[in-house]
Amino acid sequence: MSIQVAPKINSQAQTDFLPLLGTDYVEFYVGNAKQAAHFYMTAFGFQALAYAGPETGMKEKASFVVRQNKLTIVLTTPILTNNEVADHVYKHGDGIKTIALVVNDATSAWEETTKRGAKSFKLPTTLEDNNGTVVTSGIHIYGDTVHVFVERKNYHGIFMPGFRKWENEYFKPKDTGLLYVDHCVGNVGWNQMNPWVKFYENVMGFKNILSFDDNDISTEYSALMSKVMSNGNGYVKFPINEPAEGKKKSQVEEYLEFYQGEGVQHVAMATNDIVKTVTELRNRGIEFLRVPSSYYDDLLERVGSIDEDLTPLKELGILVDRDDEGYLLQVFTKPVEDRPTLFFEIIQRKGAKSFGKGNFKALFEAIEREQAERGNL
Ligand code: FE2
Question: Which domain holds residue 186?
Fold first, then answer.
């Protein structure tokens, strides 16, 4: 279970028709869950947690669950063809199917969202074992992605009924300090950002807390637009990007082409010590985007004084940005699969509640260099 500590952004929790307590898990559909689990454990420092598959009565697919602090990742793979997991992997490659959200009442969450126009993915369903009950329900969002509402207040098992404890006898990888999901970003098609903003407002009761237009997010070659949606208590934040006209192909267009549609672009995972976390991730083979070293020449003039030494930030390519409330440190991995689609952000917030607007240009130029290498700019 994952309940994030985030500041309240308004006091409407009592009237919130969809109270969300945080991100429960993120589920990836992948070509090989056993190997993917090894990657998330070895490289990112997650621990083996639970397993479901033919041995537990799930015939068509297998799922490995790994956890680090309040981050839970479910890696699911098709064992047979002709099912929705196999179709998803064939079409999209490895990618995120589910952003699961913790609720106190999964039945109410489903009723409140579907009556406001959400398309049902899963009717409220009660799962039971010796450790109690979990109620889940789900709705469709952009592309083939879904939200699953998880009500686990009457459950005391390790993950969910249908899963058994999974222990990896071989090794117990060391934690890398990743704590919880800070935000999940979706890439949607041309002119689709505002319809999805409306969806999160009307169907899920979210608010648009920040907007970036193509003047904020553009380089010489490409542009995108983004709006950040937040639920009432601020625990769950979903920025939504769409491409904007530029001289060349934007990173969002590249994503849409290779993912074959809309989907999750990146998941930001929070840490309390970004230098330590990123050093550890780099040592374990995770590749990060790099900005030119000139980025650091006038960094302190741009963001003011910070607690961290500049040297390790520069060595690791960690970016810094400041807003009215404080500053943040962030860094982005390269895509973690062969298609140029999903990647991760590592973020440390020191008061700032924003998303690094001051870094957009440097960052997108770094992405464009990668796009050009792939022949996709
Ligand atoms: Fe982000």
Answer: 178-374
Dihedral-angle region of residue 291 (phi above 0 means left; psi in -120 to 50 means alpha; beta otherwise)? beta
Whole-number Å distance, alpha carbon 328 to ligand 1 midpoint, is 11
Expressed in angstroms and rounded, the spacing between residue 337 Cα and the centre of ligand 1 is 18
Identity of the residue numbered 22? G
Residues 6+ apart with CB under 8 A from 305: none
Which pair of structure tokens corresponds to residue 274? 């970004």
In a domain, 4, yes or no: no
Centre of ligand 1 to C-alpha 252, Å, is: 14
- Among the three residues 165, 187, 210, which one is the final residue of a domain in this structure? 165
* Contact between 289 and 333 (Cβ < 8 Å): yes
Residue 345 Cα to ligand 1 midpoint, Å, equals: 6
90, two tokens = 């064939």
DSSP 61-82: EEEEEEEETTEEEEEEEESSSS
Q: How far is the CA of 267 from the centre of ligand 1 (A)?
A: 7
Q: Do 147 and 252 sit in the same domain of this protein?
A: no
Residue 2: inside a domain: no
Answer yes or no: do 235 and 189 share one domain.
yes
User: Which tens digit of pLDDT belongs to each residue from 35-83?
Assistant: 999 999 999 999 999 999 999 999 999 999 999 999 999 999 999 999 9
- Sign of the C-alpha dihedral computed for residues 274, 30, 377 and 354 taken in this order: negative
Structure tokens at 373: 């290498």
Spatial separation of the C-alpha atoms in residues 124 and 99, rounded to whole Å: 16
CATH at 139: 3.10.180.10
pTM for the model stands at 0.93
Segment 101-136, tens digit of pLDDT: 999 999 999 999 999 999 999 999 999 999 999 999
